[in-house]
Structures are given as structure tokens and as C-alpha cells.
Write a structure and sequence with these properties.
This protein has 438 residues and is an alpha/beta fold. The protein has three domains: 8-28 and 240-371, Nitrogenase molybdenum iron protein domain (Rossmann fold, 3-Layer(aba) Sandwich); 31-235, Rossmann fold (3-Layer(aba) Sandwich); 403-436, no CATH class. 44% of the residues lie in helices and 15% in strands. It has 17 helices and 14 strands. It has helices spanning 18-24, 31-47, 49-59, 74-83, 86-106, 143-156, 175-183, 194-203, 220-229, 254-265, 281-294, 301-309, 321-331, 343-346, 364-369, 405-421, 425-436, and strands spanning 8-10, 111-114, 120-127, 130-134, 160-164, 188-190, 213-215, 234-235, 243-248, 273-278, 313-317, 335-339, 355-358, 395-402. α2 crosses α9 and α10 (254-265) packs across α11.
Length: 438
């Protein structure tokens, strides 16, 4: 089997390259998916559960779901751990432990500061009551995503965690995934994926309550659906096809770099992006050769070939690593690896990425499965605007203002002035009247 080679391009701040610019300007969402999502979501709003079951039958291999088997039973969830191979169970527990440790460390704490007049100001955090996590499952049972989403909601203290993931044509779901969901605190699991899953969580049905927020990655249709239900519920971010950028110099191992590029190209949508940026012509050529050598060894080599055919894999040679970093920051990748002799120092200039992986011993797959931070990250350039999922994304922040009479006395003139400037005399009078009655 022949493997297509991806191209090596040159780019600099002074001399741009049309191929590179086209690679950078990938869309964060698919307009075709937007229209499909709009139609299906409208149907779900109108018809509820029947529309969800109909969509599941059409798009999930002809599965016949009913009101009675739409939700995974408690008995099935309880049996999942027994059916999970010991090695897989150990891996899930290891990832869960590391992810929850990281999530707890990152939680923002309540705080207060005194006001000049003896009062106080601060912030308080409360978990959302009911959230939804989407777990893709079309090409692989993403047990790691269960941990990287639901476990964060669990750490945040969310009491009701709903999960949606597509089942097989016979209605079953991989037991490792179910075990991971249970360990991560999920309280309800529904056997639906795609747009219909987003509709179920956002609008609810006759028997299922809607959630307050939906998180998790998905394909272009899931991303479109999440965008369209925003406002009815909160969402985390735009998280579509996977992508990686690697900034490397001549010290990098070309086999390692190639393997890391391939790790994101194998996901299966064909829209993934893998970018190598280097100041070394020699390394670029060696990495291209390694990708060609390694691809036939992969079980998902057809997916990789599709990415290459779609111009989703690119090697770019820049005059120096500073310009290489500029290019990577412009790309705003979901995952960004730095494999250079001065990786620690150079990482300080990385400003725009979903997650940063420093040094040759930090493959992106460590972040996908076990390192600690969630692997739910912005894609399609959305890292310019969004950040990766954290436990705080499942909490509401409430500011606290506790003024004393002295505080209001000191700020009265400012309140009254703003009220006059903005033509909001009732605002101003709410402060003034307190002194008139004294």
C-alpha cells in the first residue's frame, strides 16, 4: 500500500506562502453542518423524544431505541466494571486520579477583601445543578473523554451529570466507557450521539430534564448543534476535528515527531490538522519520510491517508525558530508541542494554544489520556478566544458586595454622577434616598 507524502513549504514574515496561509485559515465550523443541525434541532424542539429516536435510528446504524431503553440501565452500569479488562480498569483509574488531582488544584477559591468603609467585597462559587457531557463514539469508544469531562463536573460538585454517547446498532455501549462514566460521577447515560444528543440535553423531553450546560468534543455536526443551542444552555467552546502543531529544531527525533503528528491525524473525520514547523530542512525531510514509513503500520492508516489527501498535514521550514513560533501562535493549535534544545525557554513565547507540551518526552497523547488537564480543547483557531475545559466551567461565579454606611457615603457622589451622565435618575436616587431618610 502506497502512502501519500505531505508537502514541505517555506514561510517567513517577509515572504508568505499561499499554501501555508490556507492551512492556517481553516474554519472553526462547517456551514453545511449548520443547516443540518438547525433542521434537526427544530424537529426535536417540536416533537421531543420521537424526533430523537428517529434520528438515532437514521444516523446510528439503524439502532431501534425506545422510551424504555434510551437510558442505560442501572444494572448495565453496575456490570460495566466487571466487564472491563483489568488493564483497562487500571488505566481508567490512573487517569481519573491524575485528572481529579489537577482539577482540584485549579479550582478557584472564594475570597474577600475589606472595603475602605469597613464592608467587604468578594466572589463565591456554586456548582451548576445539572450539566451534560458529550462523549463521541462513532469511530472509537472514548473512555478518556468521559474522565476529561465528567470528572471535572464531579470535582466542581455538580449533583446531576448527564452523559450522551452513541451506542452500537444492537444498543450496547463499550463497558470500558461505561465504567469510566460511572467512576467520573455520571448519574444518567443516554444512548444517543450527534445532533440528537445535543438536542436531548438542551431541550429535554417529556421525561428527561434539560441541562444547564453542555460540554465535550464532537464532529462538525455536534459542534454546529452546540453553537445553535447556546443561550438556551451554556456551552464550553468550539471543539471540532483534532489538530496539533509541533515546533522542532535539528535536535528533535524525527521518528518521535512523525508519531506525534500521526497521533492526531488518525481520529477519522478527515478534517484533522497536523503541522510541523522547523528551521531545519533536514528534519523536515526526515519527518516526511518517517510519516511515510509509520503510516502503513497503523490500524487507522486509511484515516491518515484521508487527512494527507485533504492537505491536513504540512511541514513548514522557517528562517529561524522565532519566526516559527510566530507562525504557530497564528495557527492557534489545539495541541502545541515544542521540541527544541531550548524548549523550556522558548515555551515562554507560546501565547495561543489550547494546551502546551514541552520537550521531547511530552507527547501530546500524554495530555489526551493521563497527564491531568482536560483534553477538551478549542480547535479551528478558537484558541485565540477560548481555553480548555476546567472544573470551574461547571460552577457559577457570584460576586459579593457588602457595603457599610461609610462605604456608601464615600461612593455616593460617584453613583449620583454616573446616574446623571447616563440619564438613570432612579439609579442615582437609590443611593440618595438613603441619606434623605437618615
Amino acid at each position: 500500500m502506497s502512502v501519500a507524502k505531505f508537502s514541505i513549504e517555506r514561510w517567513s514574515l517577509k515572504k508568505r506562502n499561499a499554501t501555508v496561509e490556507a492551512f492556517l485559515n481553516r474554519p472553526a465550523f462547517d456551514e453545511r453542518a449548520e443547516s443540518v443541525a438547525a433542521k434537526m434541532l427544530a424537529d426535536i424542539r417540536r416533537s421531543g423524544e420521537s424526533a430523537i429516536l428517529k434520528a438515532a435510528h437514521r444516523f446510528q446504524g439503524g439502532v431501534n431505541l425506545t422510551s424504555r431503553n434510551l437510558r442505560v440501565s442501572a444494572a448495565t452500569l453496575a456490570a460495566a466494571e466487571r466487564k472491563t479488562p483489568p488493564a483497562a480498569a487500571a488505566a481508567v483509574r490512573d487517569a481519573y486520579s491524575r485528572v481529579t488531582t489537577f482539577a482540584k488544584a485549579g479550582l478557584r477559591r472564594e475570597w474577600t477583601i475589606p472595603t475602605p468603609g469597613g464592608g467587604s467585597l468578594g466572589e463565591r462559587y456554586h456548582p451548576m445543578e445539572r450539566v451534560g457531557v458529550y462523549i463521541p463514539g462513532g469511530t472509537a469508544p472514548l473512555a478518556s473523554t468521559a474522565v476529561m469531562t465528567a470528572a471535572l463536573a464531579q470535582v466542581a460538585g455538580v449533583p446531576q451529570i448527564v452523559a450522551c454517547t452513541p451506542c452500537a446498532a444492537d444498543g450496547t455501549i463499550n463497558p470500558v466507557l461505561l465504567f469510566a462514566l460511572t467512576l467520573a460521577g455520571v448519574t444518567e447515560v443516554y444512548k444517543v450521539g450527534g445532533i440528537q444528543a445535543i438536542g436531548l440535553m438542551a431541550y429535554g423531553t417529556e421525561k428527561i430534564h434539560p441541562v444547564h450546560k453542555i460540554v465535550g468534543p464532537g464532529n462538525a455536526y455536534v459542534t454546529a448543534a452546540k453553537r445553535q443551542v447556546y443561550g438556551v444552555v451554556a456551552i464550553d467552546q468550539v471543539a471540532g476535528p483534532s489538530e496539533i502543531a509541533i515546533l522542532a529544531d535539528e535536535t528533535a527525533n524525527p521518528a518521535w515527531v512523525a508519531a506525534d503528528l500521526l497521533s492526531q491525524a488518525e481520529h477519522g473525520s478527515g478534517l484533522e490538522k497536523s503541522l510541523l514547523v522547523t528551521n531545519s530542512e533536514k528534519l523536515a525531510g526526515e519527518v516526511v519520510a518517517e510519516v511515510t514509513r509509520q503510516t502503513p503500520l497503523l490500524t487507522r492508516r486509511d484515516a491518515v491517508d484521508t487527512v494527507i489527501a485533504n492537505n491536513g498535514m504540512l511541514a513548514v521550514v522557517t528562517p529561524n525558530l522565532d519566526q516559527g513560533m510566530e507562525l504557530c501562535n497564528r495557527f492557534a493549535p489545539e495541541h502545541f508541542e515544542i521540541i527544541t534544545a531550548d524548549a523550556q525557554q522558548r515555551a515562554k513565547t507560546a501565547t495561543t494554544a489550547g494546551a502546551l507540551f514541552i520537550g521531547g518526552w511530552t507527547p501530546e497523547s500524554a495530555g489526551d489520556f493521563v497527564a491531568g488537564p482536560s483534553h477538551v480543547l478549542p480547535t479551528g483557531g478558537a484558541a485565540k478566544m477560548f481555553s480548555g475545559l476546567t472544573a470551574d466551567d461547571f460552577r457559577r461565579r457570584m460576586s459579593i458586595v457588602n457595603f457599610t454606611e461609610k462605604d456608601l457615603t464615600e461612593t455616593r457622589r460617584t453613583i449620583e454622577t454616573f446616574g446623571a451622565v447616563e440619564g438613570l435618575d432612579a439609579h442615582a436616587r437609590a443611593a440618595t434616598i438613603r441619606f434623605e431618610n437618615i
